[in-house]
C-alpha cells in the first residue's frame, strides 16, 4: 500500500511541477497581447469607390508587360467622403504618375499584377491628392487584365 501511495504522490508532484513550468514558460515567452486598434476619434470610416483604374504592368527592367484594370475602395473619414469623391481625378493622376515607373508585373509571363505593390502606390498617391491623414486604407477589390 505504501508503494502505491508513494507512486501516486510522485505522479501528482510531477504533474504539478510540469504544469507550473509550462504555465511559466507561456507567461514569459508566449504570444504577446494584440496591439490596440488605431483610433481615429469619433469619426466613423466610410468607403469611397474610386472606380476602375487602368494601370500599366511594368517589369523590373522597365519593359511594358501589359495593362491591368483595378477596382479600388478608399477608406476615409465619413465627413471627408464628399471631399475625396470630388478629388478622385487628382488621385488618378497621382497614380498614373507612379505606376509607369513601379514594377508590378509578376509571374513568369508578367501578366499577373502584384496587388500589394499597387495598394502601396495608391497609398503613396493619397496624400498628394487629398492631403495628409485623409486616406486611411486602400482595398483592392478586383484586378482584371485589360
Strand/helix succession: HEEHHEEHE
**Stretches where pLDDT falls below 50 for ≥5 residues?**
none
Largest sheet: 3 strands, antiparallel
Distance between the termini: 83 Å
Average the pLDDT over all residues and give the rounded result.
Answer: 88
Query: Spatial order of the strands in the main sheet?
Result: 1-2-5
Structural class: alpha+beta
- Percent in strands: 25-35%
Shape annotation: elongated
Rounded to an integer in angstroms, the radius of gyration calculated over CA atoms is 27 Å
How does this structure look, described?
The chain is 42% helix and 28% strand. The protein has helices at 2-29, 81-86, 88-99, 115-130, and strands spanning 45-58, 64-77, 105-106, 112-113, 137-145. It has a three-stranded antiparallel β-sheet with strand order 1-2-5. Strands 3-4 form a two-stranded antiparallel sheet. Helix 3 packs across helix 4 (115-130).
Write out key terms for the chains shown.
4 helices, 5 strands, 146 residues, elongated, three-stranded antiparallel beta sheet, two-stranded antiparallel sheet
Amino acid at each position: 500500500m505504501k508503494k502505491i501511495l508513494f507512486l501516486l504522490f510522485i505522479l501528482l508532484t510531477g504533474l504539478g511541477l510540469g504544469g507550473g513550468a509550462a504555465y511559466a514558460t507561456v507567461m514569459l515567452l508566449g504570444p504577446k497581447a494584440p496591439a490596440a486598434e488605431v483610433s481615429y476619434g469619433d469619426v466613423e470610416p466610410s468607403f469611397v469607390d474610386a472606380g476602375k483604374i487602368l494601370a500599366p504592368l511594368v517589369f523590373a527592367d522597365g519593359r511594358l508587360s501589359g495593362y491591368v484594370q483595378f477596382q479600388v475602395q478608399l477608406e476615409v473619414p465619413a465627413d471627408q467622403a464628399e471631399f475625396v469623391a470630388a478629388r478622385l481625378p487628382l488621385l488618378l493622376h497621382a497614380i498614373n504618375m507612379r505606376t509607369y515607373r513601379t514594377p508590378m508585373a509578376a509571374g513568369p509571363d508578367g501578366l499577373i499584377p502584384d496587388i500589394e505593390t499597387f495598394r502601396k502606390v495608391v497609398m503613396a498617391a493619397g496624400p498628394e491628392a487629398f492631403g495628409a491623414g485623409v486616406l486611411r486604407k486602400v482595398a483592392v477589390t478586383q484586378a482584371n487584365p485589360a
